[in-house]
Amino acid sequence: MIALVVDDSRATRMIIRKLLAGIGYEVLEASHGKEALARLESADNVAVAFIDWNMPEMTGLELVEAIRQDATRDDMRLVMVTSETELERVQAALQAGANEYVMKPFTADILKEKLALLGLHGG
Questions:
Q1: How far apart are CA 64 and CA 17, in angstroms?
Q2: 20 to 30 A from 96, CA-CA: which of 13, 36, 72, 78?
Q3: Is residue 100 within 8 Å of residue 60, measured between CB atoms?
Q4: Tens of pLDDT along 30-40?
Q5: Boundaries of every domain in the chain
């Protein structure tokens, strides 16, 4: 299975990449939303994307909205990964089409739990 990790923090991308690779995912990375959309154009079968909220060029929320406008990506699972904890932000992400929400800092177990909730147990 393929996962896309979108975060302007290289360290965060590396942490999530390591975890996902360890459970069998092929991992693509992007440092912002526009780069993520370009990666998605060349990868047809991305199962899940972990998306940071606060990024330059295109926010995570804008990226979720853009992905959800593409009917060919209806089955793709979207997980917001962010330090934004306000209930309004969580609701906005879910209303825009995110399937789950993970608060930073997170543990490997939390990410694995979210994947299990989404029916994605590993590559």
A1: 20
A2: 13
A3: no
A4: 999 999 999 99
A5: 2-117
